[in-house]
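Q: I'm writing up a methods section and want to include an example of the input and output format. Could you take the sequence below and give the corresponding predicted structure tokens, formatted cleanly so I can copy it straight into the document?
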Amino acid sequence: MRTLLAAAVVTVAAFLLYDATLLPGQDLGDTASFEATIGSPILTPRQAYPLYYATGNLFVQALPGEPARAINMASAVFGALACGLLAVVVVALTGSTMAGLFAGLLFAVSYTFWSQAIIAEVYALHGCMMGLCLLTLVLWARRPTLWRLALFYALYAVGFGNHLSMILLLPGFALFLLLVAPGGPRSMVRPRVAVLAVAMAALGASQYLWNLRALLVPDREGGLLDLLYTFWFDTTKADWRATMVAGIPEGALRDRIGMYWFDLHQQFGTAGVLLAVVGLTWILWPGKLTAGLAPSVAGPAPSASSLPPNASRILSRPRIGLALLLLFLVNWLFAFTYNVGDTHVFYLPSHFMVALFAGLGAGALLSLARGSSPALRLPPSTFRFPLPAFRLLPVVFGLVLLAYPAWRAYDTFPALDRSHDWQVKEFFDRLTKGLNSNEAVLAADLNWQLHNGLDYYAKYNRPDLGVADTTGALLYFPLLVRSNREIGRAVAVTDGAAGMLTAAYGPLFDIERDARVPAPSFSERIGRFVRGTPYVLTLLEPYSDNPVESAEVEAAVARLTGDTVRLEGSSTARPGAPVSIRFPGGAYYNVIAGRVGERPTVARVDSRPFRMNGRAGSVDVDIRIECWLPADTIRRMGFGRVIVGHAPALTLDRGASFVAFDENGGVKAVEYGWAILAPQPRWIIPVEAGEQRTDGLK
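A: Here is the clean output for your methods example:
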């Protein structure tokens, strides 16, 4: 009963956190793709994830309104359940309800998992499936019946419908089964067990019939083998995974080590990591796992049929520990060597294991404090406390354990709060201002993250908006322009599309700047703030495909700092300036804060991420760099936050991020330069064009 209560407490607490910080609308990148696809009756092999979409569809149907919010809420629910399941597993392994509470809450407030549990992503459900599989394994180890084994096989197989990285759990799970099986490893390859495994695998694979169906169209060319090859290629995304799995160069290994330590500390803090080391040591230390289980049966490991009702086996700690350690190592090694821009999310399964180990460490120390662990018990002379104080030690330690994740939740909350984040929608509102399908069609060529965001925006927020993908329509673009002109409709084009059309067709199209979408330069936007306005400016290593205009940065910095800060390597040296900002091409992280037109009160340059408190004029600011550059190229939460009064004021992006305050710390404006959400100009191919430009279009 206490175990279920602990699980309920963790689940509810985690859900309340996630609900309070939930993204209310759409995001960019893969998240936007999930949000745009949800609710569709057809899935292509490339879209994959049938379990994710099936469960997400239930939330969309149950929660009317913004589809993006519904699927974001699905992540919050599954993320909270994952934390509750982790708590149950730790209680089962340690016998300590307090240790289970600690492990579940510690994982719930870990930075990356929290950030993925408030947006539409597959990782919260993956954590939930991982927790379910571990719990069923522990239940099977306690009483190894064929039905419990079947339940584990079924859950593990179904998990592949959410994410194919379930395969990374196979070595650890297989070792667990082989080491813990009451009849020894051979019992796991008996015919009926093997048949059961194959049947459950087929059950899991059947989910992908939903995706395969998209290829079964009439008059399709190619035979069955070609169809299956196409399905496998798209579902596993073999084209880009081939260059990413174990794809980091040897020279990057040292940087990855630093990146992982930063990531691990970001999730759990030093105390959490130390407890995980204690827990891993404890589970590998020779001994038996009896705590937390039903009354034990001593002696040689009995068969499942010989166990009396409600009895459980005594289990070897090192055997369980080796399997858990392998679970951690395989998932960690995959993420460590995965050459992708959002490596941090692929560490999540290993984070789950670190939180589990931290829970085991907490359980071991609580057992030591109670003097109830023969393996860890110290001589009575070790303790110098009076007897009443000694008896209070477990209580005090338990309260400290619970206070740690509570403090981390409070501290992390403003860095992950997205409850009022409508920046993506506002970006597309500006980009599509004044457009409707009766008067114009939008030809877009955008960064892939923005492209996915536009798909959702056009589908749900602006169904009246006609959108054409310029890349796909490039060969017949003159026909597209002519057909729209014939019905009196102009063609609006994004900045990227305008460049693409000019490169492909030269002066064929009469492309004019659309005055309805002003896009002043970054220095012009910064220049509108009067002298004395409190501000924070961050300059992070820019995106490789979005080069920075050094003159623009120089002009903005000069305006903000009253010419007291110069860009290192800039064309104009500023005599007497004590501070140099190395951007771009220098330090990855640069922060300036103060009042417009005055020497800044904060001017920090660093090659490693940091967190600092400072003052921007009369405003106290907490500046947090939450990324590792240049390896991090995708950060759904942003690359850091500026926090004022324990509330988010600015989400940092690569390039330039700027926030201006009033004297009370209220946000007056946010501006971006060379960032994903930086304002873009829009262009127009009008209905009526100059005579010299219309040849071939009429």
